[in-house]
Amino acid sequence: MLTIVERSGLSATQAATGAAGQERREAVLHIIEEVKRDGDAALFRLTEKFDRVVLPQLAVADEEFEEAYRVIDPEVLEALREAIANIRDYHERQLRESWMTTKESGTILGQLILPLERVGLYVPGGTAAYPTSVMMNAVPALVAGVKEIVMTTPPGKDGKLNAAVLVAAAELGIRQVYKVGGAQAIAALAYGTETIGSVDKITGPGNAFVATAKREVFGQVAIDMIAGPSEVVVLADETAKAAYIAADLLAQAEHDPLASVTLVTTSRALAEEVQRLAASQLEGLDRKEIAAKALEGFGAICVAADLEEAIDIVNELATEHLEIQIQDPFAHLGKIKHAGAIFIGDDSPVAIGDYFVGTNHVLPTGRTARFSSGLSVDDFLKKTSFVRYSRQDMLDNGRKIAALARFEGLQAHARSVELRLERK
């Protein structure tokens, strides 16, 4: 049940940090070394061990894509296609271009903005199906211009992948799909095997072992982020609808027993009504047990003295998802300093961002919204500066540059400039 707490008690609602325990880290390091040493053989062996399935091959065959299109619900296919279009439209607006500027002295400065060449996408699987993870990770990479995207996801007990996941990949042109999950998939993407080539960056969510593996291979490859359990904070006043808030808190709570759900409100009456409705709505959920654990362990309602205090609390929490359900929300939007994504108004639950509207649902958790952003096109671009220094600027500024170099004790740096000043 949701508990009404004071501001000082809100720290208990923060989701687990995601830092790997030593025992888990040691297990992951062993898996990584096994994959580096044995390649595909390790992947087959570990898939049998952890997923309880013996695979004839790692790669998804063309026939499996064709079967996925035959069995997928037409309504789901239509929704996937429209969601992909929305996500693409939103992310195309983020795309940057290379630039160049010329100064009067003749010096040319610029920046090349180039896509990564090869990206690995990890999609959780097994008993669950997350086609939205495919879309949210692949679309910004495609918009950025990444030429090659490979995907790994754990197989089900029958050795197959979910039809919607395969169709989502196919709709985005991803045909290099491999039936491997867990830390072993991350190791394969980072170091390569006989079948799976190494990549430049790995993105996508996963369990604690996947997160730990991503942390361990960082440096060999880039990663998107180390994501913890899901979070939502709802900022509400007396005008908000309690039934909506209760439903939205439960929507996050059903993700994970460690999910963090918090209501920050200026209305005691609303707080009590949300508390009551959350308890009653919980009874009808298929994932009632999971949601109940999240509410008990990481759920809270905080009644603030006024809206200014409520906003201060929201900024302290720096949540993954923030819903704003107050009168005149845009008058206060500029006061929000830290949030992964913001959903404004009665008809903007987090679910629209999770599935359809176009914004990305790969977001910072565990208060990392204080210094990081959600997944975007920028995550798949690299930036290279270039300069052509003019003769005039070298003559005007060379001695200043040499003076700075000599001050830092780098004589050769200074001499490389001074030689050019001596040229007639």
UniProtKB/TrEMBL annotation:
Reaction catalyzed: L-histidinol + 2 NAD(+) + H2O = L-histidine + 2 NADH + 3 H(+)
Pathway: Amino-acid biosynthesis; L-histidine biosynthesis; L-histidine from 5-phospho-alpha-D-ribose 1-diphosphate: step 9/9
Gene Ontology annotations for the cellular component aspect, listed alphabetically: cytosol
Keyword Iron: no
Keyword match Zinc: yes
Entry keyword set: Amino-acid biosynthesis, Histidine biosynthesis, Metal-binding, NAD, Oxidoreductase, Zinc
Active site residues according to the UniProt entry: E320, H321
Necessary cofactors: Zn(2+)
Molecular function (Gene Ontology), one example: zinc ion binding
An example Gene Ontology biological process: L-histidine biosynthetic process
List of residues binding substrate: S230, Q252, H255, H321, D354, E408, H413
Domain of life of the source: Bacteria
Pfam families linked to this entry: Histidinol_dh
Signal peptide: none
UniProt function note: Catalyzes the sequential NAD-dependent oxidations of L-histidinol to L-histidinaldehyde and then to L-histidine.
Family: Belongs to the histidinol dehydrogenase family.
HAMAP family cross-referenced by the UniProt entry: HisD
Protein name: Histidinol dehydrogenase
